[in-house]
Specification:
The longest helix has 36 residues. Helix content is 52%, strand content 15%. It contains 11 helices and 10 strands.
Length: 356
C-alpha cells in the first residue's frame, strides 16, 4: 500500500500548518480560551474560509469531496496546535451523523453547520430514551453543548436532529478546564418525528469518524509533546551538564518515541478503515485504535510532565496542556478499558484460525 501523500494532500498539510503557526500560537490559544465561549469565533470563521468545515463531506451534501486522509492531516495539525474550537463535536461528530444518516435531507441540514452559521453537537448518551414520540432523559458532558445551535441526540437505537431551542430541552453549560465548553442536557418530553430521525448508520459512522480524528489529533499532540521534551532534555542542565546525558532519561524518551510512532500508525489505519466494507472488521479496528491511543497517549503525556519536572504541571507551560488534552482524548467516545472490553467481545483484533 502506498502511504505517500499526493501533491494536493501535501498542499493541504502545509497550508493548515502555516495558518496555525502564524495565527494559533500558544499565546493566541490562551487568549481564545479566555473568550466568552472558551474558543474564538474569529478562528472558527477562518476555518470556514479555509474550507476546513466542508473538507470531510461528499460534494452531494455540500462538502469538498475530500476524504479520510485529508481529515487525518487536519486532525494531526490541530493536535500539534492544541486547537480548542469545536471541530470535533460540530463537524466530525454531528456533521458525519447528519451526512451519513439524513439521506436526501442531509444537504439542507448540514448547510448552516458547514457555513459556520450554526454549531452542532453530538449527544451520545444511554440515558436518553424515546417514549411515545418524545425524548426523555439526560445527556452528560456533551461537547460544545453549551453553545450548540443544533443537536444530534442518540436515544436507544435511533438518533434525532433537535434544535437547540426546542421546547422541553434545557442545558447547564460550563467551561472545560482545557478550553472550550460542554453542557449537561435535560430532555423533558422533547417532541421528535420522522423528519428529524437519522438512520442508525449515521451514528455508527460518526463514532468511527470521531475515533479516527482523535487518533490523528493524539498523534500530533504526542509528537509535539515529545519534541519539546527532547529539546528540554538537551538544554536543561544539572550538575554542569544537560540532563539528557542521563541514560535513564534517554531510554524514557526512546519509549515515548515508540508510542508516538504506534499512534501515528493507528491514525493511518483509521484513515484506511474508511474504505472497509466489512462492518465487523470496522468495529474491531476502531475499538483497537481507540484502545491504543488511550494507552499510548497517557504514557507520553505522563512522561512529558515527569521529564519536565515541576514546570510540567504549571499553567504557563504548554506541556501541561498537552497532558490535559491527551488525557481527555483517552476518555472521549469511550475509555481505553471500554474499548479493550469491546474488542474482546468482538472476538479480538485478529481471528485465530485452527489448523484443519
Amino acid at each position: 500500500m502506498n502511504f505517500d501523500l499526493s501533491d494536493d494532500q501535501r498542499m493541504l498539510q502545509d497550508s493548515v500548518a502555516r495558518y496555525l503557526a502564524d495565527r494559533y500560537g500558544f499565546e493566541q490559544r490562551t487568549a481564545h480560551a479566555g473568550e466568552a465561549r472558551g474558543w474564538s469565533q474569529q478562528a472558527w470563521t477562518e476555518f470556514v474560509e479555509l474550507g476546513l468545515t466542508m473538507l470531510p463531506f461528499r460534494e452531494e451534501v455540500g462538502g469538498l469531496g475530500l476524504g479520510s486522509v485529508e481529515t487525518m492531516l487536519v486532525g494531526e495539525a490541530f493536535g500539534r496546535a492544541l486547537v480548542i474550537e469545536p471541530y470535533l463535536p460540530s463537524i466530525v461528530l454531528a456533521g458525519t451523523a447528519v451526512a451519513e444518516g439524513a439521506g436526501e435531507r442531509a444537504e439542507a441540514l448540514l448547510a448552516p453547520i458547514l457555513s459556520g452559521e450554526a454549531i452542532g453537537a453530538f449527544a451520545d448518551d444511554a440515558s436518553v430514551a424515546l417514549i411515545d414520540g418524545y425524548l426523555v432523559g439526560t445527556a452528560a458532558c456533551v461537547l460544545a453543548g453549551d453553545c450548540a445551535d443544533v443537536f444530534v441526540v442518540v436515544a436507544g437505537d435511533g438518533a434525532y436532529v433537535v434544535p437547540g431551542d426546542a421546547a422541553g430541552l434545557s442545558r447547564r453549560g460550563y467551561r472545560l478546564h482545557g478550553g472550550g465548553g460542554a453542557a449537561d442536557l435535560h430532555f423533558d418530553r422533547v417532541a421528535v418525528d420522522a423528519a428529524s430521525q437519522l438512520a442508525p448508520i449515521g451514528v455508527t459512522r460518526a463514532r468511527e469518524a470521531g475515533i479516527a480524528f482523535l487518533a490523528a489529533e493524539a498523534a500530533g499532540a504526542m509528537q509535539s509533546a515529545l519534541d519539546i521534551t527532547v529539546e528540554y532534555l538537551k538544554t536543561r542542565e544539572q550538575f554542569g551538564k544537560p540532563i539528557g546525558t542521563n541514560q535513564a532519561l534517554q531510554h524514557r524518551a526512546a519509549e515515548m518515541l515508540v508510542e508516538v510512532e504506534q499512534v501515528k500508525s493507528a491514525a493511518i489505519y483509521a484513515a484506511t478503515l474508511a474504505s472497509e466494507t466489512d462492518d465487523a472488521e470496522r468495529a474491531k479496528g476502531f475499538a483497537a485504535i481507540k484502545a491504543v491511543i488511550g494507552k499510548s497517549g497517557r504514557f507520553v503525556a505522563q512522561s512529558a510532565v515527569q521529564l519536565h519536572g515541576g514546570i510540567g504541571v504549571s499553567e504557563e507551560h504548554i506541556v501541561s496542556h498537552w497532558f490535559r488534552r491527551l488525557t481527555t482524548i483517552g476518555m472521549i467516545l469511550g475509555s481505553t478499558q471500554f474499548h479493550v472490553n469491546r474488542l474482546a467481545d468482538l472476538g479480538g483484533f485478529t481471528a485465530v484460525r485452527r489448523a484443519a
